[in-house]
Write the structure tokens for this entry.
Amino acid sequence: MRIPAHSVCTAIRDDIVAGVYERGSRLTEELLARRYGVSRVPVREALRTLEAEGFVVTRRHAGACVAEPTEQEAADLLEMRLLLEPLGAARAAQRRTEAHLKVLRGLVRLGQERARRGNSDDLRSLGGWFHETLAQASGSPALTSMLTQLRHKIAWMYTVEAPAGPVEYWTEHGAIVDAVARGDSERARAVTALHTERATAAHRLRFGSAGERAERVRNSQHPVNTASLRH
């Protein structure tokens, strides 16, 4: 069975975001193919995709390497998100489906419940799911793709402090959904802009020691998960 390049791409991207591959380090096709248990063909395709996304660069005499973004490039990502997240919410107010609203409302209920319990790990994953669904509700594949890439890159370059008031944080999510449900694009844009601005203040550029990077490598999963490909 040939493993799709997008599955290999996801695996490599996840390891880059997790810090398994140090910035500037080489990514050779042979070693990557061995690591993920695939042939070199999907690895080659995956590296081309990751280069287009900005995670990988090709250098003369070195080949593919993990990109080394500057602090200014990292700051630009947060500024782009400040512009695009509110746009996505405004579009969602105009184009969302009942299925989108059902998922968004369910996530807000779960988020508020977990916030009251103080479960920060669940809140992080639920928050990611919320914003992914909100982007999809915009009805714009191009905007959804851009926001997805932004989230991946921001997760790579920044750590995020847990919100001081998680219940209030999820109340803001609820306000976004209320505006989207009413079809009020201007209100959806405004509350999302405020929410994104507050969230941005909790971001800190990543700085990791060699020992921490080695620990991430030891704890990472090498093979590509192909279970979902068999169905």
